[in-house]
Each structure stands twice: as C-alpha cells, then as structure tokens.
Amino acid sequence: MGDCRSIYLNACAEVASDLASNGFHYLKSRQLMIKQDLDLTFRISFQSDPSNWLPKESVEGVITGANARDVFASTKAVEREATIHGFVSMLVWWNVGSSRMQTWRRSLQHPVRTDDVVAGGALGDLVGNGRTWMIVNLANRAARAERVRTVANLIRKWALPYFQHLREPGKIVDELVKAPNEVFGIFFSLEYVACHGSKVAARSIIKRHLSTYPYLRGSYKQALSEFRQNGLPRPHTRYGDGGVQLALVALALGLEPMKRRGDSPDD
Fold first, then answer.
1. Do residues 84 and 179 both lie within one domain?
2. pLDDT tens digits for 174-184?
C-alpha cells in the first residue's frame, strides 16, 4: 500500500503549498498546517485511512459517476468510482487554539480541559448549508489534481474567513448567547462565554440548552448532586450522557455552586 501512502502525502503537500501564501507553515511529518496569529493558532490537519487500496491494474481517464470537483458526492457515486479506481481517502480537520483560553482554563480550580482548543471539527462542517461530510477520494488519477485544488479552495473560501471571525471574541460571545452554534457545540460555547463574556451569559446558555432538551434535566440534577458529594474528575474526562457532562462543565466553570445544592438554572 505504499502507493496509497505516497498519493495521500503528495496531496497533503500540494494543499499546503497552495495555502503557504496565506501564512501557513506545513509540518510534513504530522500532515499539519499551522498559522500563528497573535493569541490564536489556526490549524488544518489531514488524515487518511489504513484500509486504502488500489486495483492491481491502473485505470486511466475514467471518473465514473463522480464529478472531479465534487467532494460531497453521493455515497452511491463514491462507491461506484471506488470499485474501479480504488479508494485513497483524505480527511481534512481544523481547529483553533487560544493561549488566552488555555491560561484561563489552567487558572480554574477544576478545569474541564487544559489545552488551548477553542473550536474545531471537519472542514465540511464549515461549508455551505447542511453539508457536513467531505469524501475526498484521491485514487482516481483523472480526478486527483482537481480534488486537491478543490480542498485548497474550500479551506480558503470557508475556513480562513471563519478563522478571521474568531479574532473578534465579543461578536462570538453575542452569537453564542443568541443561538446555539453547531461548530462550537454546547461545551466549547460555555467555556468561551465564561472566559470572554460573563457567568450570567453562560448560565443563560445552560438554561436554553435544558429547555431545548428537557430529557437532560433529570440526569443534570442528579449529576450535580453526585459531583458535589464526590468531587469533580480530572481534566479531559468525559462520561455519562449529555446531562452529566453538562453538570460537570457547569460546576467546573462556577456556573453552578459547588458547596451547596442550590437550584438548577431550568427551575
């Protein structure tokens, strides 16, 4: 499968080369692009699949059911193409780190996490409306160059403006308080607002979340009681359902009192 690995690594290097003019430094050994911007660190990373495969005899000049530019092709089209050309996947991830957030987290008595990540996910999460998963098959030689360009263009069109947006914490806080944000998710949202906004604003997000998902209230209240009795776990611990994790974050960030039972924000 050495050919698969080479195809994937060469594609990563091509995308990185295309984005070099935007200030990204490429770490070839980690397939990771990094750009430092004052407090923030922007990261684009690539991943492939150990089950990649190529046919014994190469097939030239055939795309077969999948447009060369379309990295959001239907499952049927992707499968049809793979039966002829094989499959060499490229997954594209992003995340943004903040040294300010990391310092703030580590200043807490019971941090939920101690790294610098503010938000992150798959590149497809940022693209258009309702598109959430990219399937980039590099096996088809006739489509490979176009798909590499498409990945670079998607990063430039969607990820870079979003990175720029994250340089304005005040606007982000206002957005997170007004409405749920699928890119941040509930837990990153709470941390971000507690750090850059206020505890009052963060509590309003908990109240909204419990109102939207009332089935979490029971486990949330029970977990509050148990954490108060038994203490909070080490950073980066995840367990239980969403209500349990929400209770953990609420207590760790001081959004719920730790030393008394009190009322939960949905009461």
1. no
2. 999 999 998 89
pLDDT in tens, 92-118: 999 999 999 999 999 999 999 999 999
Number of separate domains in the chain: 2
Boundaries of domain holding 183: 169-252
189 and 157 co-located in one domain: no
User: For residue 67, what pLDDT band results from cuts at 50, 70 and 90?
Assistant: confident
Residues 132 and 217 in one domain: no
Single out the residue in 135, 165, 195 at which a domain terminates. Answer: 165
| Residue 129 within any structural domain of the chain | yes
39: number of Cβ within 10 Å? 17
Q: What are phi and psi of 33, to 5 degrees?
A: -105, 135
Question: 137 and 70 in one domain?
Answer: yes
Per-residue three-class SS string for the chain: CHHHHHHHHHHHHHHHHHHHHHCCEEEHHHCEEEEEECCEEEEEEEECCCCCECCCCCCCCCCCCCCCCCCCCCHHHHHHHHHHHCECEEEEEEEEEEHHHHHHHHHCCCCCCCCCEEEEEEHHHHCCCCCCCCCEECCCHHHHHHHHHHHHHHHHHHHHHHHHHCCCHHHHHHHHHHCCCCCCHHHHHHHHHHHHCCHHHHHHHHHHHHHHCHHHHHHHHHHHHHHHHHCCCCCCCCCCCHHHHHHHHHHHCCCCCCCCCCCCCCC
User: Residue 98 and residue 110: Cα distance in Å, rounded?
Assistant: 19
Tell whether 66 and 108 lie within a shared domain. yes
Q: Which of 165, 197, 212 represents a domain boundary (last residue)?
A: 165
179 and 141 inside one domain: no
